[in-house]
Amino acid sequence: MSNFDYDLFVIGAGSGGVRASRIAASHGARVAVAEDYRVGGTCVIRGCVPKKLLVYGAHFAEDLKDARHFGWDVPDCKFDWDRLRDNVQAEVTRLEGLYGQTLENHKVTVFKTRATIAGPQKVRLADGTELTAERILVATGGWPHVPEFPGSEHAITSNEVFHLDKLPKRVVIAGGGYIANEFAGIFNEFGSKVTIVNRGDTILRGYDEQIRDRLLQISMTKGIDFKFNAPFEKIVQNDDGTLTVHLGGCEPIVADAVLVAAGRVPNTKGVGLEEVGVDLDDHGAIKVDESNQSSVPSIYAVGDVTNRIQLTPVAIREGQAFADSVFGGKPTVVDYQNVPSAVFSHPPIGAVGMTEAEARNKLGSIRVYTSDFRAMKNVLAGRNERALYKMVVNAATDQVVGLHMIGPDAPEILQAAAIAVKAGLTKADFDNTVALHPSMAEELVLLK
Ligand code: NDP
């Protein structure tokens, strides 16, 4: 028995923190976790999970229209935001309970309060209680970044968007990344007038250019407006409660809600990190080595607070690797190569590996295959929306080094195909696989 109150004290019960707590406890460690909001963190409470449920809800707008082409008499339908919002929140609460249950089942002590670091092996709870731990894991995640401009207090972020009192008729969304494009699709399908306002001229930086262009083109066809090179100047609240958004280089826009989706910053302020000598990078992220250890040997960090790849499954891997390495005697390093990702836009995007531009820069000689097609379902529905699949191949080895897709169910298909890319399979391996007909995924083995 050590002289510490706990073997491990985890700050933050999100995806990374919960996984690390549970696994460390299963290896026999005495673990406590502190969470000042709700167990589950961003992903479960105000991110991936409620967002995906809204995406499902939004997609019915198209399904109900398409159903008529498939023989169903669908009367004009009305959408009820309050009902969906409340159902989604009920599901979030259910999942929060399950996460709490998991911690309890593993005998992890949960402090539902804020904790800060009071020493290399000491934490302080909000009521002043001090507890010691041989190791501390910081898993405090990230927080929406709201750039400073007059009237920014009138804007909401992804934290608030799930709780809106009513569906805004007109929404301005600042940013051109994941959250902006996902919520543009959601609100547009619900019938709101959506304008995406971006400081640059690129959406979804980091994704393959052709795929981004296709999303932009489809989004515009669906009625979403885009303003590029239009930095926010100010937001003014009008007497009737509406908001006027003033932008550089274009006319002001009147809206009922303004959503800022300008990236997320690591949650390191006020945690007590610098005071004990934990090094942060220029973005305020905790600097860690490949074993998730910070510059203070007893303090570790996983997930968005380290700003490596801001994705839930990556945080989970990091939490697992930390617990297995430190408490399970199984040294594990997370492999960041070929991490698949998706944008749950309308239609969604899935991608893994190098974009065409990256592969050209890194490998020089590449081959690119594309399939530009209209999904069978869209054809019958009279929906003029084309999917695009793209494969990037290393010409020297025939290895598939990137897959990029936009179209119905692209993330579902991509997850399975990512196994092949991760395993280093070749274009010939894809070609040797017999097509599964009729499916959209078969395009992947028929690329010419
Ligand atoms: P992103 O990093 O995806 O996009 C941020 C956008 O905001 C970019 O268009 C960026 O422009 C712009 N921006 C950045 N700083 C400023 C600024 N100071 N003023 C104006 N515009 C600015 O961030 P999101 O907020 O959309 O999402 C945060 C993170 O959450 C993502 O990076 C992702 O890791 C994660 N996430 C993942 C999802 C998924 O897996 N499906 C879904 C939602 C979120 P520029 O391109 O010029 O830099």
Task: Provide key terms for this protein.
448 residues; alpha/beta; FAD/NAD(P)-binding domain; Enolase-like, domain 1; 3 domains; 7-stranded mixed β-sheet; 5-stranded antiparallel β-sheet; 11 helices; 21 strands; 24% strand; globular; binds NADPH dihydro-nicotinamide-adenine-dinucleotide phosphate
Coarse morphology = globular
Here the CATH topology of the largest domain equals: FAD/NAD(P)-binding domain
Measured between the Cα atoms of the first and last residue, the distance is: 64 Å
CATH class of the largest domain: Alpha Beta
In terms of per-residue confidence, which ranges show pLDDT below 50 for 5 or more consecutive residues?
A: none
In total, the number of domains comes to 3
Residues in β-strands, percent: 15-25%
DSSP summary, beta strand count: 21
Overall pLDDT level: 97
For the largest beta-sheet, the strand count, sense and barrel status come to:
7 strands, mixed
Number of helices: 11
Q: What is the second-level CATH architecture of the largest domain?
A: 3-Layer(bba) Sandwich
Query: Which structural class fits the helix and strand makeup?
Result: alpha/beta
